[in-house]
Amino acid sequence: MSCYMCIDSYELPPDSDNWLECPVCMLKPKTWIFNNGECTGCGCGKNDYDHFSIHAESVMSFHENDGHTKYYDSDSLRKNWNHWVKTGEILWVKDYKNTGRW
Fold first, then answer.
1. Which of 24, 57, 63, 101 has the greatest number of C-beta atoms within 10 Å?
2. Residue 63 covered by a domain
3. What is the pTM of this model?
4. Is 1 inside any structural domain?
5. How many helices (H) and strands (E) does the chain have?
6. Tens-digit pLDDT string for the chain (102 aa)
7. Does any domain span residue 9?
């Protein structure tokens, strides 16, 4: 039986049928979406605090950086995850120090 490597704040998304399984651990990701972050957790990693994660820019980052949320894509985390599963490429990496986006 596989287990998730993420804290209890992560939950299976309501549209989990639209998320692909991790090619390494074969689990569909759990997600944690909050004001200043969006991230995934699956069975890959050392423990609940040190694990692999795909991120997407948060709604508050859009607000802070663009002054509005008009172009915020609430589905970007799923798109980023599924793209990584299919290609191995990570579309968006959180890089606050260099870009100011989180």
1. 57
2. yes
3. 0.86
4. no
5. 3, 3
6. 479 999 999 999 999 999 999 999 999 999 999 878 899 999 999 999 999 999 998 888 777 667 777 888 889 999 999 999 999 999 887 766 666 566
7. no
